[in-house]
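User: Design a sequence. Structure:
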């Protein structure tokens, strides 16, 4: 089976990094004026040299996003099902070595959470778990999907990487989208941040989008955890991965997220701090590189930043999120995966989106379409 790993092995992290940092104003101007932008153009757009061109990039990004997506922002909310996890990840509140109370929601508890989420108006839910294969496994996911799919127009998942056959089993139960972040493409640093558990297998994680594509998933989401390594180099590898996947699995759609490392109980300090201006640059660079890509921003970011980014290329947002299992109704006081920065409710966020001339879209996926895919 084809795999991104073969292509990935042809690239050297330090060479890529040096190439990005050597881009000049001329390279940036060429990238901005190019009709079809390639990976070299993307390097220029994320380089320090592009910082002086941010306004121009933001203008083009806004124009391209409006052309493809209109004045809309898709709304979604995470539903944390479990904080059980057998992995040690240095940046996560659910890490195995973090002595916190663990819980996996029962069917009844899930329905209580669903009721609270529906009350907020959501039709798109993102199911999130840690990696505890004894309790949170494919059979559990099937049961959860059967339980909640009739109540939502769209169900996405951000759980442990699975085998192709597992994804093939879940799609008929209503799974449409899977998010799997590589965290970092720096293989050595990846090992440092994932010293124990199945997640320490860099290559298995790297090949997850291939398995999703082979399973025929409707949409997959990529990204890295910004702060673990040089964000520019990590973003290049994400763009390389995306380009590969789009060619290989052209039937699937793609989304990208930009999580910046957030504080949590016993937390890790970022190795590299990305400021707000740089995050805007990255979002605009992705939009200039790829007009079809869905770009998502979560409540990790501050209210001010989220207000300002609506018009610049973002196509989906969460609001009113809780990052603990039971956080909406069952156990609001339990430990979060990370601290939320924007605590405004879904309703408040919707008003802000509307005030900027955009429409918050709660449902962009019809149940009848899901039935067609499932049949
Ligand atoms: S990031 Fe995911 S796999 Fe790692 S400790 Fe947290 S929940 Fe577990």
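Assistant: Done.
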């Amino acid at each position: 089976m084809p795999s991104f790993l073969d292509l990935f092995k042809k690239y050297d992290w330090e060479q890529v990094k040096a190439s990005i940092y050597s881009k000049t104003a001329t390279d940036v101007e060429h990238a901005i004026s190019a009709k079809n932008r390639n990976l070299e153009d993307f390097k220029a757009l994320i380089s320090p040299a592009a910082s002086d061109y941010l306004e121009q990039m933001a203008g083009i990004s806004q124009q391209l996003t409006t052309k493809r997506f209109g004045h809309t922002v898709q709304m979604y909310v995470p539903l944390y099902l479990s904080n059980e996890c057998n992995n040690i990840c240095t940046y996560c509140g659910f890490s195995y070595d973090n002595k916190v109370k663990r819980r996996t929601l029962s069917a009844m508890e899930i329905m209580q959470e669903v009721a609270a989420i529906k009350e907020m108006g959501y039709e798109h839910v993102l199911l999130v778990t840690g990696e505890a294969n004894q309790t949170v496994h494919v059979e559990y996911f099937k049961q959860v999907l059967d339980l909640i799919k009739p109540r939502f127009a769209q169900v996405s998942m951000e759980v442990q990487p699975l085998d192709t056959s597992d994804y093939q089993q879940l799609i008929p139960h209503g799974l449409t989208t899977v998010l799997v972040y590589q965290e970092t493409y720096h293989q050595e640093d990846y090992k440092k941040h994932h010293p124990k558990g199945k997640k320490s297998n860099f290559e298995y994680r790297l090949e997850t989008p291939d398995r999703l594509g082979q399973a025929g998933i409707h949409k997959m989401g990529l990204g890295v955890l910004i702060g673990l390594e040089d964000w520019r180099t990590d973003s290049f590898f994400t763009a390389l991965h995306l380009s590969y996947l789009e060619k290989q699995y052209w039937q699937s759609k793609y989304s990208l997220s930009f999580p910046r490392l957030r504080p949590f109980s016993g937390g890790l300090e970022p190795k590299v701090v990305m400021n707000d201006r740089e995050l805007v640059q990255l979002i605009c660079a992705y939009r200039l590189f790829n007009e079809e890509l869905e770009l998502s921003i979560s409540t990790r970011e501050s209210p001010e930043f989220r207000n300002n980014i609506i018009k610049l290329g973002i196509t989906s947002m969460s609001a009113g999120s809780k990052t603990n299992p039971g956080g909406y109704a069952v156990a609001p006081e339990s430990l979060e995966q990370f601290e939320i920065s924007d605590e405004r409710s879904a309703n408040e966020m919707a008003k802000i989106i509307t005030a900027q001339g955009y429409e918050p879209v709660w449902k962009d996926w019809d149940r009848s379409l899901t039935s067609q895919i499932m049949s």
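The beta strands are 72-80, 124-128, 154-158, 177-179, 219-222, 253-257, 294-297, 316-318, 359-361. The mean pLDDT is 94.
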